Automatic annotation (TrEMBL):
Protein name per UniProt: Effector protein B, substrate of the Dot/Icm secretion system
Superkingdom as given in the UniProt entry: Bacteria
Basic and acidic residues compositional bias, start-end: 671-680, 724-733, 802-814
Skewed-composition ranges (Acidic residues): 608-623, 631-646, 744-754, 835-845, 887-897
Residues covered by region (Disordered): 608-647, 667-755, 770-905
Lineage, broadest ranks: Bacteria, Pseudomonadati, Pseudomonadota, Gammaproteobacteria, Legionellales
């Protein structure tokens, strides 16, 4: 037999699973007085528990009464009725079970507390605790002769056989183990396939009471009281053999009034909430209102203002607020004394009445816009009218209202996509969007789920009645015309609706979109046939091809059909329909707010692939995000069909691809011009030609301003490299042998900057991998002062920016970097010459990198009395001298430097004794065991390291690589290149996922930068990069890019800085993977960085 879907009300779905078999057994007890299933005593206990809970005398309550009462309810209602009774049955069985004491002891609670936890409502959640399969069988199933076969979401099935079984119950579990509140749910069939949804059948009687159960612990007793009265009325009607429609109607009216009151008090004060209910309160509703305690809302909120204001003074409401107001003003209609009569006195349903009289407008007439609420009711009615098996293929239709300025439609669709993926038995998700404020232009769509090679592949088909795919992308702020919600998008190109046919006002979008959804619901085969051609439903194609007179006749006929469809919407369902919509809208809103908070945590506010900057879309000064009205509240406009949308290029659709080739060339030419004019400098400081300031006085521009946008690491690595070059340039003349880098201070006086400022990467955060490399850089810098003094800047290259780009060996996406002008700039030349000099020196003494020997900075004797806070340790003029540190520095070194390392020689600097105590207090041990770095001196370095890490991929190379993939993806779509499209789509998501995962890993690490966290951070990043390699290595330029990205991330930029400098020296891109004679030395550098990162410092 087909099994009913299991209700999650009160978190009782495990017990609800047993109700079909229990009901069958009760019928047998009714039919056969001598029936014996070997479990009679326990079924008798169950009958007595039922009688006691629902107010019958257990001694007089017969098997016939029990079976007849349950027989009066369908399968869904039976679950609701039996759930609390089975909890009471379970309590008795647990009390008599000696094993409960052992379980309680293991859980460190008393047996009484354990039993209470499982059988009483949790006051915090207003629901019962969920049950494990073993608990369901041990405490309930075995006593009733029900064997249990349990299939978890992941893993093999398990069969538990009862003694003298009367039936076997198969259950399947999905989601969180804690129950419905964490997404967990049980069903009687795999993935719920083939189960019957009995809740929305015409014979369901208890839906009105469900809002009063499992939502609020203070409301539960009133909900149970109404449930008990309903069962008692059913028994009475069976006994007296007469209809009690009036009594049933009063219970339903009471439930509706209480539900409406609970809704009202969230938005308006108590007094007004009661007034909105009207004067005909039932006795039970009045009792609830007098007894229910809650924290009252502050007075004079917007809804109260609107209700009390004169018609001309009412505050303006948004679409969502208007829906709330509609719900507040909705009268609580007394249930009909004929339980199955949905019509009011006029013979029309309330939905029909609203359709033809809302704001004194009749929506059957051609010139009337469809109201949001009418659309909501129509798609609900169409969905409910489907056969059960067909309805189960669809998610409940969702109608977006006023999404513009509230939520991002792309993100809302992403949530719908997620829901569809997580619903294994559903294939389609119909929806309607109305994204504009103050007007009523609707879009309709269907999300289709296909299974390809065992994996879900989703496609959204979006129908705009006026066509214009480019305008849809702009108006809905979609990331692309081929992607929405992270999945494929197909836009309808068909112009069904025009201003001419609509008499200048686009009034027909509502009927057209409802017809689109209605046809999709009735014809899932048509949905399966949809592709890039977007074949319209036959009726819409007929309307598209019709002339003006025929068009208006078709639209009027659709409106009449929709009016008739609303006859199937019972008055009692109106509040439920709106409540369901508001509940889901609240869920969407909460999810997106949570996502925004997570995005703030991982600092993705500037991620061009998660948010779109409106400025990127502006054309000719026009703000295209200012939606044009459809004319609902405007004077009749002149026809504007002669306005033709201009075709949109890929960069308009994809604002992320903002670095165009023209911009790159223009920037490179500007850099070349600046570099050419920079041959003369002042005091060995590289200076750019003066540029006019706002006050007309020429000011000198710093080196960092040379390359404001072309640095693929967004100026961070290059800025550090240039700062280091300036440091080298100034090191020839120092004060007290201390290298000092002068930077302009706020008051115009140059102040000395410590070596920590010069090389911010030398932070304690990455002490092991970084300090050794930094020491090598300092050693290189200290050995180059004479070289720098005698060097002359290179002549600027004669190559144009375009020609220089060709020298990048075809590495796509890697040429948004400094060209020859930047390389030949004095500052850059200084750095590259220093590195080249060091490389030549290493060729003569190859043991430096071969044995991974890292030489620390050498401190001069004259440094004994220099200030630690103001001056860095001086570098020895003799780079080959044995490192000798002043005795005064002896003890602080123990805190600042790692111990000497086997096979990786690091000479311990010796610090002055006067520094012993201050060093111990001020400096933490690098990677102190599982303790976060809290020292004040470590905080700037920590922040700098975090920024370095993020800039390895944010705002720079990785973002541009992703943007390039997205642009090519769009091009493949336009060219109908299916194979290329799927390959690029796979690569796009792999790259985007890599960016997301690296960002998240960085957040975790930098929030608690311990040694153990660094290991986990490195392991995680290694895994993410390896996963990305599998997909991205097939695409040009990505393999070498990921290699360099890994080096940069794991060294917070130092390894990449060295490597990038060598690249620049050889006229290559900063990220170029070397194939030159320096490759061996470069490999040595990389290997030393990699080895250093593996070292575990001494505690």
């Amino acid at each position: 037999m087909p099994f009913p879907k299991l209700s999650a009300v009160l978190n009782n779905c495990p017990l609800h699973a047993l109700t079909p078999e229990i009901k069958e057994e009760l019928l047998k007890f009714r039919e056969h007085a001598d029936y014996d299933n070997k479990h009679n005593a326990d079924y008798l206990l169950l009958k007595d528990k039922f009688a006691a809970f629902y107010g019958f005398n257990p001694a007089e309550f017969s098997w016939k009464q029990f079976a007849d009462v349950l027989g009066s309810y369908n399968a869904f209602d039976t679950q609701i009725i039996m759930g609390p009774v089975l909890r009471l049955f379970m309590k008795d069985k647990m009390i008599s079970n000696d094993f409960i004491a052992i379980i309680a002891q293991a859980n460190e609670v008393s047996p009484e507390e354990l039993i209470k936890n499982y059988t009483d409502l949790n006051p915090k959640t207003a629901r019962y605790e969920s049950l494990a399969p073993d608990e369901l069988f041990t405490d309930v199933g075995q006593y009733l002769g029900l064997s249990l076969q349990y299939t978890p979401q992941d893993g093999p099935s398990r069969l538990i056989v009862a003694q003298d079984p009367v039936a076997q119950v198969n259950i399947f579990h999905n989601g969180g183990a804690e129950g419905a509140q964490t997404g967990g749910h049980w069903e009687r069939t795999a993935k719920g396939e083939g189960s019957v949804d009995c809740q929305n059948r015409d014979d369901t009687q208890l839906n009105h009471f469900l809002p009063l159960l499992g939502q609020d612990s203070a409301v539960n007793p009133y909900g149970f009281d109404l449930l008990k009265k309903h069962v008692q009325l059913t028994a009475r009607s069976l006994k007296e053999k007469k209809n009690l429609y009036k009594e049933f109607a009063e219970l339903i009216t009471t439930a509706n009034q209480i539900s409406q009151y609970l809704f009202n008090i969230v938005s308006v004060p108590r007094e007004l909430a009661i007034k909105l209910l009207g004067s005909d309160l039932t006795a039970d509703a009045a009792l609830f209102i007098s007894e229910y305690k809650f924290e009252e809302i502050h007075p004079n909120q917007i809804y109260e203002q609107w209700i009390k204001a004169d018609a001309s003074q009412k505050p303006k409401l948004g679409e969502y607020e208007q829906l709330i107001m509609n719900r507040l003003l909705m009268p609580v209609i007394a249930a009909s004394s004929d339980a199955n009569t949905p019509e009011n006195k006029s013979g029309l349903t309330q939905a029909q009445t609203d359709f033809i009289s809302r704001e004194h407008k009749d929506s059957r007439l051609f010139e009337t816009w469809y109201d949001n609420e009418d659309v909501l009711r129509l798609v609900w009615a169409m969905h409910q009218d489907l056969p059960e098996s067909q309805r189960n293929q669809f998610m409940d239709p969702y109608v977006f209202f006023d999404t513009y300025n509230r939520h991002d439609i792309d993100e809302e669709i992403a949530l719908c996509v997620r829901q569809l993926v997580e619903a294994p038995d559903r294939r389609y998700y119909p929806f309607i969007i109305k994204p504009e404020i103050g007007s009523a232009h609707y879009y309709a769509g269907i999300i289709r789920k296909d299974i390809v090679k065992g994996e879900p592949r989703l496609t959204t088909f979006l129908f705009n009645p006026t066509g214009s795919p480019e305008q849809v992308v702009k108006k809905l702020k979609l990331p692309s015309h081929v992607l929405i919600g992270g999945e494929s998008l197909v836009l309808s190109p068909h112009e069904v609706q025009t201003r001419d046919k609509d008499n200048g006002r686009l009034v027909s979008c509502g009927p057209l979109c409802v017809e689109f959804i209605g046809y999709a619901l009735q014809n899932p085969g048509w949905i399966d046939s949809l592709d890039e051609r977007f074949v319209l439903p036959p009726k819409l194609q007929q309307i598209k091809d019709s002339n003006l007179e025929e068009y208006q006749a078709h639209i009027t006929a659709l409106r009449e059909q929709h009016y008739q469809a609303l006859a199937k919407v019972p008055d009692g369902q109106l509040s439920t329909i709106l409540d369901d919509h508001l509940t889901f809208s609240t869920f969407i809103s909460d999810e997106l707010k949570a996502k925004a908070r997570r995005r703030q945590i991982i600092d993705l506010k500037d991620d061009p692939f998660d948010e779109v900057d409106p400025a990127d879309y502006e054309e000719d000064g026009e703000d295209i995000f200012s939606f044009s009205s459809d004319g609902e509240n405007d004077p009749p406009p002149e026809p504007s069909d002669d306005e033709v949308d201009e075709p949109q290029v890929v960069t308009d659709v994809l604002p992320q691809t903002d670095i165009l080739l023209a911009e790159q060339e223009e920037q490179a030419l500007e850099e070349a011009e600046h570099a050419t004019r920079s041959s003369s400098d002042e005091e060995n400081v590289p200076v750019l030609p003066a540029e006019p300031s706002d006050d007309g006085i020429d000011e000198q521009q710093g080196v960092i301003d040379v390359l404001p946008q072309t640095d693929i690491l967004q100026a961070e690595q290059e800025e550090q490299a240039l700062e280091e070059a300036e440091h080298v340039a100034h090191s020839s003349s120092d004060e007290e042998n201390a290298p000092v880098l002068l930077e302009p201070s706020d008051d115009g006086v140059d102040e000395p900057q410590t070596d920590v400022d010069v090389l911010p990467q030398t932070d304690v955060l990455l002490a092991e991998p970084n300090e050794e490399v930094v020491e090598e850089v300092e050693h290189v810098a200290s050995s180059s002062s004479d070289v720098e003094d005698n060097s002359t800047p290179r002549e600027p290259s004669n190559l144009t920016a375009t020609e220089e780009k060709k020298h990048d060996d075809g590495h796509e996406g890697l040429d948004n970097l400094p060209g020859p002008a930047a390389i030949n700039h004095p500052a850059t030349s200084t750095l590259t010459e220093v590195i080249e000099t060091e490389l030549l020196a290493e060729e003569e003494q190859p043991t430096a990198f071969a044995d991974n020997v890292v030489t620390p900075p050498v401190l001069a004797e004259s440094d004994k009395e220099s200030s630690e806070e103001e001056q860095p340790n001086a570098l020895s003029d003799n780079v080959d001298a044995q490192p000798v540190l002043a005795e005064s520095d002896e003890e602080s070194s123990e805190e600042e430097q790692p111990a000497a390392l086997v096979d990786n020689v690091v000479t311990q600097p010796v610090l002055a004794e006067s520094d012993k105590e201050s060093s111990e207090e001020e400096q933490p041990v690098a990677f102190a065991e599982e303790k976060p770095f809290v020292a004040e001196r470590a905080k700037p370095a920590l922040l700098q390291a975090e920024q370095n890490f993020e800039k390895q991929f944010k705002f720079g190379a990785l973002d541009k690589k992703i943007a390039n993939l997205l642009a090519r993806l769009s091009e493949a779509k336009l060219n109908n290149d299916t194979a290329q499209y799927h390959n690029l789509r796979e690569a796009y998501f792999a790259a985007k996922n890599l960016r997301r995962d690296l960002t998240a890993a960085g957040v975790v690490y930098f929030n608690n930068p311990t040694k153990e966290q660094y290991r986990e951070f490195k392991t995680s990043c290694d895994g993410y990069l390896k996963t990305a390699h599998k997909t991205l290595d097939k695409h040009r330029g990505w393999s070498e890019f990921l290699v360099n990205l890994a080096i940069g991330i794991f060294t917070a930029g130092l390894g990449l800085l060295i490597k990038g400098g060598i690249n620049l020296a050889n006229n290559h891109s900063f990220f170029h993977v070397h194939k030159t004679a320096s490759a061996k030395l470069l490999d040595d550098i990389e290997e030393s960085v990699k080895d250093a990162s593996k070292i575990t410092p001494s505690a």
